[in-house]
Sequence to fold (284 residues):
Amino acid sequence: MTTAFDVRPLSGALGAEVRGVRLAEITDEEFAELRRLLLRYLVIFIRGQHDWPPGSRVAFGRRFGELEVHPYLPHLEGHPEIQIIDSEQDGKIPIWHTDMTYSPNPPIGSILQIVRSPGTGGDTMWSNQYLAYEALSAPLRELLDGLTAIHAIHIPGLDSRAEHPVVRVHPETGRRSLFVNRAHTSHIAQLSRNESDALLQFLCEFSTSPEFTCRHRWRDGDVAIWDNRATQHYAVDDYAERRTGLRVVVLGDSPDGDRPRWEHFRPRPGERYAPARVNAKESY
Fold:
């Protein structure tokens, strides 16, 4: 694949640093190129994007689609689409996750710029969920293709629940990827809770194996753009200094996959859920 930019892959699994672009002045042709690179590498990094005006930042995000106004995160004054991510204001999420899968239409992607990075630590990791799915055995892939999962969040001020295919088909590439995560996936709808717990435990561990990941060391002004439809990410909490960033989130589509091959699991009358592992966010 030829490109006008200087593209430097970050790992064998995903991620690339793209040099030679100024996001505040990006042309239509450059944006089309950047989007192609995003579909190929799933997360791309552009360093040194200092003094990126808020209006330009919002306009860039809108090239991908409609932008989210988050229900509780703080935002830049006068720009509700630009979320402030602050490590001292609940801005640390040290758990592998895909953003907002508890929504019926999870985001298709995010654009995050770190404004202030700690002197040491504070990296972010991403995992390629195409590769995770493709590395599974054929019988397990066949089973997962016929299942759906419940994703949920139940916290003060935010209560949401959605059912998505365990394996989603990317609407632009047509590739299949795992679509479960430790933060938001409650249980697999067609299985008993203990069966679901065991399978989700395996999938969550397997899907974030080192061979599927990349890791980015932030510098002030760095921008990361990632495809939320085929990745998970993890903000490493190994720092004490304050870290702040600005994020724009692109609203999503309805995850597509195979139709479920079985009905929802129904417990027998009086059957109780006594978890062997604690994954499920909801009881019977």
Q: What stands out?
A: Residues 28-41 form the longest helix (14 residues). Helices lie at 28-41, 54-62, 129-134, 138-145, 193-206. The first strand starts at residue 6 and ends at 9. The chain has five helices and 16 strands.
